Amino acid sequence: MNLPDDIEVKDIDILIIGGGTAGPMAAVAAKEKNPDASVMLLEKANVKRSGAISMGMDGLNNAVVPGHSTPEDYVKEITIANDGVLLQKGVMTYAENSFAMIQKLDKWGVYFQKDETGEYDMKKVHHLGTYVLPMPEGHNIKKILYRRLRRHRVTVENRYQAIRILKDAEGNACGCISLNSRTAEILVIRAKSVVMCTGAAGRIGLPASGYLFGTYENPSNCGDGHSMAFHCGAELTGLECYQINPLLKDYNGPACAYVTGPLGGYTANSKGDRFIECDYWSGQMMMEFYNELQGGNGPVFLKLDHLAEETIQEIEHVLHTNERPSRGRFHDGRGVDYRTKMVEMHISEIGFCAGHSASGVWTNEKGETTVPGLYGAGDMASIPHSYMLGAFVFGEICGVNAAEFAEGREFAELDMDFIISERDRILAPMKRTDGIPPSQFEYKVRRLVNDYLQPPKVTKKMDIGLQRLIAMEDDIQHLFARDAHELLRANEAQHVYDCAKMAAVASMYRTESRWGLYHHYVDHPETNNEDWFCHVQLHKNEDDEMVCKTRPIDPYVVELDDNEKNAYSQMRVQQAS
Amino acid sequence: MPIASQISMVPVVVDDDKCIAEKGCRTCIDVCPLDVLWINEETGKAHMKYDECWYCMPCETDCPTDAVTVNIPYLLR
């Protein structure tokens, strides 16, 4: 059986989905591993300016640099920050490869701050160890990655949204179905192995401003990978461990305590007093932040007004040229000057992001998901607290392993019935003459998430939220798109919808509280290590239902002393409480 | 299910006098992560067609003629 003319098929050895941070590294690594293999980087935007670091990055948040820390120190720190629930082997693999990756990036032309002796200028932000390395000129990192893609002759396809992973008869990943966001054409890519690097799920909750795209994460990161993983039968993990970040209120970009902290800035309450010991993001820290916001000493501010003029200028240079450079413009509009005013902060909407917390598509220390031939790296995959450097490290690991998996394999027979039914489903909103606009559908999903699913979590509320979401399933058949762009949004909105349901199902399964605010479950306020010292895996069962199961935690590779385990539980400054 | 269109003040402003889209330039359109900049069929210049902005700035930074200004979306200001 042949495919209809309107479905184009391309064959490629190794398919990388997502061209932000991990994706380009995976593509280059696959090419380095096997220069004869064909490698395609599929990107929803344009690889020149896509993903979380489209405008660069102001520093490494987790650099494990000899002389400052050891991989063992780092694994301990993240184990404690993550309340013990993690795949230590995965974090260890990251930590052991962290320094080599810094050196590689340095060689590629990424500039890291060095001290007067020429050594990396490491800063302490974490509670225990020293892991932050500033990149004051980090705005050009995408250009450097792009040059590498060209040099290694990676095939780049921009403006394609990947929508479903294809599997062969044996259950191996063998490509994907994608949609061109400019022409509404369907492209099927047949591959021998697939790496997903689709970023965080950053459009689950609604920002306080109500502006759908004013999210903390780059809003093109809407959970495509999370949804694709679920539908192809891969396990996701830790989804109840939401990502919630401290940020500049309304602007919704990071306050960047990692930049300002080493220079003397800090998070303060309305009296200008410190209330947390440590500005490194953890669920425990967010809990104290939330308590201060809600209590009589709120709201919370970024305090810089006590700093010297030259320090403020340094901070402005870094923050207003890197990562989220429009923040200077935002402050100007409100007449906020770091010299004279504290900057109001707030907490973000919820998301899934292993870059900062621990939620995502389950991946092991080799970057493998639970579906053979399908790999995952970066904010989408489950190695916790991985940040940009973790995305690079696991991007490289996935690229190498995907290249190995592809070797000697043949292209699979395509499942025509599945592809045709998916084409019809994907294009359906454009066939209608009226209906529900994607923006309204998405707004409603995300408003329900804010009303019912964000912490503090309450069973009855989450139950109502889930039922309301399930009722919206009927609305999908009425989604209406007038052009290719709206069709992209309609398909994204369905992925947002999947993620919202996943947030509810995973949160209601783990009947304890853990990770501070991230899983603050009011009905079960205590941490219960007896029953819940385990991963929660969400997946699709044989009846296509969304269900959870537990997964035991693999034996630690670095043991913790009893007195170390609670280091992150004592976040509140004693005299301020 | 009938629909209606609502107007929206968009954050990205393109100076038509400076924009060289008619010479084939598509820089801002290419680099927008959200694909919200398109050619205005009436003027032949780039414009913000969809109010879905992350105020991330590649369009402004990469524009070869400084024609693009990114404002903070009204709801956030």
What does this protein look like?
- The complex is a heterodimer of chains A (577) and B (77).
- Chain A is an alpha+beta fold.
- Among the domains of chain A are: 246-347, Succinate dehydrogenase/fumarate reductase flavoprotein, catalytic domain (Flavocytochrome C3, Chain A, domain 1, Alpha-Beta Complex), CATH 3.90.700; 428-552, Methane Monooxygenase Hydroxylase, Chain G, domain 1 (Up-down Bundle), CATH 1.20.58.100.
- Chain A contains 15 helices and 17 strands.
- Chain A has helices at residues 22-33, 71-81, 88-108, 141-151, 224-231, 257-260, 283-294, 309-319, 327-334, 387-406, 416-431, 438-453, 459-471, 484-509, 529-532; strands at residues 7-17, 39-42, 59-60, 133-134, 155-157, 160-167, 173-180, 186-196, 236-237, 246-248, 266-268, 300-303, 343-347, 360-361, 374-376, 534-540, 546-552.
- In chain A, the strands form 4 sheets. In chain A, strands 1, 2, 5, 6, 7, 8 and 15 form a 7-stranded mixed beta sheet that branches. A 4-stranded antiparallel beta sheet of chain A has the order 14-9-16-17.
- The N and C termini of chain A lie far apart (70 Å).
- The mean pLDDT of chain A is 95.
- Chain B is an alpha+beta fold and 77 residues long.
- Chain B has a domain at 15-66: 2-Layer Sandwich (Alpha-Beta Plaits), CATH 3.30.70.
- In chain B, a hairpin with a 6-residue loop joins strand 2 and strand 3.
- Chain A binds chain B through residues 45-46, 48-51, 54-55, 158-159, 181-182, 209-215, 218-220, 250-252, 324-326, 329-330, 333-334, 434-437, 478, 480, 485, 488-489, and chain B through 1-3, 30-36, 49-50, 52-58, 61-62, 70-73, 75-77.
Oligomeric assembly: heterodimer
- In DSSP terms (H or I, runs of 4 or more residues), the helix count of chain B works out at 2
The tally of beta strands of chain A, per DSSP, is 17
Order of helices and strands of chain B: EHEEHE
Radius of gyration of chain A: 23 Å
Straight-line distance between termini of chain A: 70 Å
Mean pLDDT of chain A: 95
Q: For the report, how would you describe the main beta sheet of chain A?
A: 7 strands, mixed
Overall SS class of chain A? alpha+beta
Structural class of chain B: alpha+beta
In CATH, the architecture of the domain at 428-552 in chain A is Up-down Bundle
Shape of chain A: globular
* Stretches with pLDDT under 50, minimum 5 residues of chain B: none
